[in-house]
Amino acid sequence: MSEHPSEPAARVQPRRGAAAVLALGVVAALAFMPSVPDRHGGQASPPSADAPAVTVLGDGSTSDTGPQPGQPAPVRLGPGERPPQFVVFSFGSPAEGDGHLFSRARGAARANGADVTFFLRGVDLLPASVRWQYQPPQHEVGAAAVPFPADGEVRATLQQVGRAWLDGDEIADGFIGQFCGPKGGRDWSTADWRSEIGQGYSMVNFWKTGTGFADLPPLPFDYQTELVGGRAPCLEGRENLLPAEQDAGWRYDVGSRDDTARWPARTDGIWEFPLLATDRTPQAYRSAFDRAYRGTRAPLVLDTDLGSGNDAGLQAAEAAMKDLCHRDGVRCVSFRQLADWLDAQDPAVLARLHTLAPTDAPDPAAVAGR
């Protein structure tokens, strides 16, 4: 997805409350870790002919290696131009277990020219031996609705996270404990969500302190800057979650299931992206694509959970990538890239796209003007 801008891209708003949310999470559970990454005490590695300069952050868990590779510049629609058909492939529970599903998903994305989103969970970087570091809202210390990983799995996952970012993929927030229903996301207050988000920042920003794996290299990105959106477990609790996401300065939320193929809307500055198809067959994915492509051209989100060895779900996503990402007018992008494109558009054009009924095909002249 290579583009050249016809005008400057929309500027990203500063991360207003991320540091405050991070501090809340640290106070809640990880008080022994620094509350804010130490950018003044970072160690700069000398540049070489093959690699950019690296500034190590905080305890050495993350680093600043410059802009993420392979990111396209968003371009505003021109007069009479039809919107592209965006397809977002996203993956939950991206832990590199015995089935190697995380690395397989990365490989499929590279093979088909797709940039994808991985919803990293804090629990994926917290070994079972130190599970007590997590203080989940409304639950006992060290509790989670999913198993904590072994040391080897955490090490393998960390390697895949860094490689995914270098591939151009997005690392987003899948939250930590995966609690649903009573005492889970459905019942959490905004303060509970702030704690969950803050602890998630800490588990990524300070995984070396949390795990003791001091021998591993830092992740090649600054998570404090790169994290701009997330997807809550079971898509619950959005009313109280959205204010916490706003405090963190996030740009989008994946928070509902909707098969009507409508263009995203923004609430209080946050893009709301629906999941149009989740863990289905290749035929179901193709049908959902055809409805969007022939109708509104609304972005299509194909989400796959990699947890519990979901090989069948990944196979369907792999087949869909191979089928869809090579078609004319189709762009397989991450949620962050989709938000970048939406931010670059004329608000009046987006408003007209959002009013289209699910079966309406956008008239380029009516939508983008002549």
Structural features, described:
With 370 residues, the chain is of the alpha/beta class. The protein has one domain (18-34, 56-65, 86-368): TIM Barrel. Helix content is 34%, strand content 15%. It has twelve helices and 13 strands. The longest helix is centred in the middle third of the chain and has 17 residues, at 151-167. The radius of gyration is 20 Å and the shape is globular. Residues 1-14 and 26-47 have low confidence and may be disordered.
The total tally of domains equals: 1
User: Strand count, sense and closure of the main sheet?
Assistant: 6 strands, parallel
H/E topology pattern: HEEEEHEHEHHHEHEEEEHEHEHHH
State which percent range the strand residues make up.
5-15%
Fold-level CATH name = TIM Barrel
What is the number of helical segments per DSSP (H or I, 4+ residues)?
Answer: 12
Helical fraction equals 25-40%
Alpha-carbon Rg, integer: 20 Å
Unreliably modeled segments: 1-14, 26-47
Assigned CATH architecture: Alpha-Beta Barrel
Please identify the structural class as seen in this structure: alpha/beta
User: Could you give the count of β-strands?
Assistant: 13
Average of pLDDT = 86
Distance between the termini: 26 Å
The best one-word shape is: globular
Name the CATH superfamily assignment.
Answer: Glycoside hydrolase/deacetylase
CATH class: Alpha Beta
